[in-house]
Design a protein that fits this description.
- By secondary structure, the chain is an alpha+beta fold.
- Helices cover 39% and strands 19% of the residues.
- The chain contains 4 helices and 7 strands; from the N terminus they run E-E-E-E-E-E-H-H-E-H-H.
- The strands form 2 sheets. Strands 1, 2, 5, 6 and 7 form a 5-stranded mixed sheet that branches. It has a two-stranded antiparallel ribbon with strand order 3-4.
- A hairpin with a 5-residue loop joins strand 3 and strand 4.
- It is globular.
- The relative contact order is 0.19.
Length: 165
């Protein structure tokens, strides 16, 4: 599996993904997301899996895994495929020379209820399909912890914004 450096169309020179990371609760996110592209991810290296918006897969990855699980519909389907391929011994390699520009959240809108529902539903589906039982049992703890951290960060950002006069 080969993954590209994915930059946002807007804002320019900001990283969407340089490979994938995954949280303990099954939520995956792009490595380097929202960082300015200053060459910090310009080295080819192994990653967990590529983002499917711009990736190359060996045909046998699809044959051995059964391909993308259509029950995901959108969001997380590449994480599911990547995890299943990794469990079968496939490797993923990040290729920074392959640069694409991505219109983020064009499928359902950045903060649409549909996107939120699909992301959270698929996070749970991904965990159920691919996680070992001990990690699956701990999933609610890690989810609450991630939600709490997100709320704290959002609250801090709101408080730090200057007043508009």
């Amino acid at each position: 599996m080969l993954g590209s450096k994915i930059l946002f169309i807007e804002p320019e020179n900001v990283i969407d993904k340089a490979g994938h990371l995954i949280y303990w609760d099954g939520q995956n996110r792009g490595r380097g997301t929202m960082e300015m592209d200053a060459g910090q991810y310009d080295r080819s290296e192994e990653t967990l899996w590529p983002d499917a918006c711009a990736a190359l897969y060996h045909r046998r990855v699809f044959e051995e895994t059964g391909g993308f699980d259509e029950s995901f519909f959108a969001f997380g389907d590449d994480a599911d495929l990547g995890m299943r391929a990794r469990l079968l011994g496939w490797k993923a390699w990040y290729v920074p020379e392959a640069v694409v520009h991505h219109r983020h959240s064009a499928t359902a809108g950045a903060y649409s209820p549909l996107k939120v529902m699909l992301v959270e539903r698929n996070r749970i589906l991904l965990a159920i399909k691919n996680f070992a039982l001990p990690l699956l049992i701990a999933n609610p703890y890690w989810s609450i912890r991630r939600f709490g951290l997100a709320c704290v960060c959002r609250f801090r950002k709101t408080r730090e914004r200057p007043a508009i006069s």
